[in-house]
Amino acid sequence: MLHCDACHQKDVDGCCYECVGVSKPLLDKIVVLDPGHGGIYSGGVHYGFRESDINLSVALKLRKKLARLGAKVIMTRTRDVNLAPPGSTLGADLRARVDVAKTSGADIFVSLHVDDVPNINLEGPASYFPEGRSSGLASAIQTSLVNEICTDGNGVSPANFYVLVHNDMPAALIEMGYLSNPAEALCLMDNAYQNLLAGGILRGIINYFQK
Ligand SMILES: [Zn+2]
């Protein structure tokens, strides 16, 4: 994986425009972006960083990039909030995310997360698709994401995460890296690195639709 210093040398916004030209390859595509956790559900917390903040920050960057290319972007949250009313269960929060997707008429659903495990040496992104269904979206995103940040990553796997299996549309859940890895945690909090992640996911989404 590239270290943050190396990432800083790359202008993702500039590259993005060069690579996809001035056309709007995502015109009329509806994309639901789901920044995982939020509010009382912070997700993983390490080294003073919260997963929910990283997920939201990358999602907001990705929203901007998608919109520039013509996509209509629907976010499950744009602030540090939980989706279900106070006092609700985590299940209700997850259900609310799927409800946003179901009522949106969206083409795809992309949930953004970062991972948190006891082994602090694990690093790099992994992408998940709903068990028993197509891996196409997750594969397209994983391929361009690892290419963008110059790492092998941890591949594409089926999973039974609630927001994947209860969604009818093509869906992917992206673990963008490990917050439990101290070096990667610093990268994940870095603005330029977050732009790289958003750029990699963006290109994966473009590739998915252009197949
Ligand atoms: Zn998470």
TrEMBL record:
Q: Source gene?
A: cwlD_2
Q: Which top EC class is given?
A: hydrolase
Whether Ubl conjugation counts among this entry's keywords is: no
Q: Give its E.C. classification number.
A: 3.5.1.28
| InterPro entries found in the cross-reference section | MurNAc-LAA_cat (IPR002508), N-acetylmuramoyl_amidase_3 (IPR050695)
Q: Which residues form the MurNAc-LAA domain?
A: 98-206
**Is Hydrolase one of the keywords UniProt gives this record?**
yes
Tell me what organism the protein belongs to: Methylomusa anaerophila
GO CC annotations, alphabetized = outer membrane-bounded periplasmic space
Source taxon at top rank = Bacteria
Sorted UniProt keywords: Hydrolase
**Record protein name field:** Germination-specific N-acetylmuramoyl-L-alanine amidase
MF terms in GO: N-acetylmuramoyl-L-alanine amidase activity
Q: Quick one: a GO biological-process term for this protein?
A: peptidoglycan catabolic process
